[in-house]
Amino acid sequence: DGGITQSPKYLFRKEGQNVTLSCEQNLNHDAMYWYRQDPGQGLRLIYYSQIVNDFQKGDIAEGYSVSREKKESFPLTVTSAQKNPTAFYLCASSIEAGLAGVSINEQFFGPGTRLTVL
Amino acid sequence: LAKTTQPISMDSYEGQEVNITCSHNNIATNDYITWYQQFPSQGPRFIIQGYKTKVTNEVASLFIPADRKSSTLSLPRVSLSDTAVYYCLAPERGSISGGYNKLIFGAGTRLAVHP
User: Fold this and answer.
1) Do the Cβ atoms of A48 and B102 come within 8 Å?
2) CB atoms A106 and B91 under 8 Å
3) Which of A11, A37, A53, B38: CA 20 to 30 A from A111?
4) CB A44 within 8 A of CB A58
């Protein structure tokens, strides 16, 4: 079964602690993304990676860090510097970032991780 | 920057056809319009993408008029399971290094289907 998985589904953290969210895909996609979603809002891009060993900041990267050591994996660390980390975090992947011809490559999303800071 | 505007919410009843219109006045010449669907506590999933005229798949139809300043997602004969948030997306082009074209997710349209 090809797909994208995230773990854990629910995560609780004490203030001041770093926490790492897992994202794995077996779709052989080059590009991977992390989004944050707050209640009633759309998705905001945190980080994205177009290829292994490369990643770029999105719109709200402050307080987050990522790594892309393997094509299949793109973990996100929420650091203590993130002032309001409670949110729903979504990981996605696509064949490549950007265009396929003139259309945008479809992004495949994982089931999400709901992070709550206590 | 291609900004999209869509209704915040819509209500419908089972068996009806639902049309959600999105305006995108500043869409670039070559940009496609993409629609995603999101159920509560799940990731969004791709529904349909189009450039002009009409595109149809097993889930929905997408109508884009000649001026391409708007598009309409049509869901035929909705059921309770179509209750979700629907996002109309246009790409933001090339402002980030490497020419990455990212998707902009607004708040979407919350569709509630009633029995």
Assistant:
1) yes
2) no
3) A53
4) yes
